[in-house]
Amino acid sequence: MDLSVVIPLYNEEENVNELHTKLTETLNKLSIAYEIIYVDDGSIDNTLKLLEEIQKNDIHVVVLSFRRNFGQTAAFAAGFDFARGDIVITMDGDLQNDPADIPKLLDAIKDADLVSGWRKKRKDSFLSRKFPSIIANWLIGKVTGVKLHDYGCSLKAYRKEVIKNLRLYGEMHRFIPALASWYGVKIKEIEVIHHPRRYGTSKYGIGRTIKVLLDLVNVKFLHSFSTKPIQFFGPIGALLMVLGVIIIGYLVWLKFSEGVMIGRRPLLLGGFFSVLIGLNFIGMGFLGEMIVRVYHETQKKPIYILKKILGPGD
Ligand code: UDP
Ligand code: MG
């Protein structure tokens, strides 16, 4: 199998048939062995029914149907788990991405491991989608160190090895390039077409921004410290403890050398809190260390990812 196309759909009944027609048109021209994996993310309209019809008449189609709405990231993850192609392409199921871009992506991935689409002329509302996305893109670039113009574009191509190593949670699909680049993969960004949504409604609004920001902090933390939590919590805890001890020391000195009453000083409370919170941080760091060990050792999860193994005979 050369190519798997993974498409999440949630209540996209008006788009399904046209999407499949356009997709098939493009893919059949390529003369490669391909499959299309439609992931029905618990739609409550006719999406699943239409997909079942399509599947019956097309041997290239696999339909995965979720019991309930698990979200776009989960839909991608399911698609990745079932994908058999050497290259995996993801795209939206609402016809905002254009299947006609697929050949361009396949071309670009020849000398890369991941190709990310850039919706240069994005056709979404400015206030609720484009503006938050400008800020989010800037922030994600700063925090992850992976420079892309458009993280949110679903139209992406991956080499199989890249996605098989990924574990996705929350709303994390937009961080795949960052996660992957931390493994050391080569990323390219190319301009892709973007259409306004013609049928159905967008499943997201401004509320998504806050989730993305939380996920960003999460991803950054996990990347930097997930195998060494004490190195994150330890210094903060130690700093707070030292600060607390200095404060308390100062107050004790005031009391004994100057005879000042310190019992009612807010600073005293501050000093004690600082020591206690510092202790907590250090404790959390060590708890984290234990959790990391349990996680990696019980599940035989390595803390590294190999690209190749060469030995005698290779
Ligand atoms: N989607 C999904 N599950 C969800 C929300 C969205 O599978 O919980 C799908 C949706 O059907 C579409 C794609 O993800 O194919 C992108 O969603 P949408 O078009 O609403 O996002 P936008 O383009 O507005 O960012
Ligand atoms: Mg859309």
Describe the structure concisely.
With 314 residues, this protein is α/β, with parallel strands linked by helices. It has ten helices and seven strands.
Distance N to C terminus: 27 Å
Poorly predicted parts: none
Secondary structure class reads: alpha/beta
In round numbers, the mean pLDDT is 93
**What number of structural domains do the residues give?**
2
Topology:
Elements: E1 3-9, H1 16-29, E2 34-40, H2 47-57, E3 61-65, H3 72-82, E4 87-90, H4 102-108, E5 114-118, H5 126-144, E6 156-159, H6 160-164, H7 176-183, E7 187-191, H8 208-225, H9 229-258, H10 266-298
Parallel strand pairs: 1-2, 1-4, 2-3, 5-7
Antiparallel strand pairs: 4-6, 5-6
Helix pairs in contact: 5-8, 9-10
This protein binds uridine-5'-diphosphate (UDP) and magnesium ion.
Account of the 3D structure:
The protein has two domains: 3-225, Spore Coat Polysaccharide Biosynthesis Protein SpsA, Chain A (Alpha-Beta Complex); 230-298. The longest helix is centred in the last third of the chain and has 33 residues, at 266-298. Helix 5 (126-144) packs parallel to helix 8 and helix 9 (229-258) runs antiparallel to helix 10 (266-298). It is built from ten helices and seven strands. The two termini are 27 Å apart. The protein has helices spanning 16-29, 47-57, 72-82, 102-108, 126-144, 160-164, 176-183, 208-225, 229-258, 266-298, and strands at residues 3-9, 34-40, 61-65, 87-90, 114-118, 156-159, 187-191. The chain is 50% helix and 12% strand. The mean pLDDT is 93. By secondary structure, the protein is α/β, with parallel strands linked by helices. The protein has a seven-stranded mixed sheet, with helices on both faces.
